[in-house]
Amino acid sequence: MFDARDESRMRVSVIGGGTVTDEQVARAEAVGRELAARGHTVVCGGRGGT
């Protein structure tokens, strides 16, 4: 279950509004991609938001 190799990796939960601007979407995607590129896990509930 617990793996010492994962100690430096984060699980980042994302909470946001269901109505966002194109700029907000672009920024959120950029942050998510950067987090993933660094080995972190991005979690989104996906409850109708963008």
UniProtKB/TrEMBL annotation:
Gene3D superfamilies linked: 3.40.50.450
Q: Which InterPro entries match?
A: LDcluster4
One of its Pfam families is LDcluster4
Name of the protein in question: TIGR00725 family protein
Native source organism of the sequence: Natrinema soli
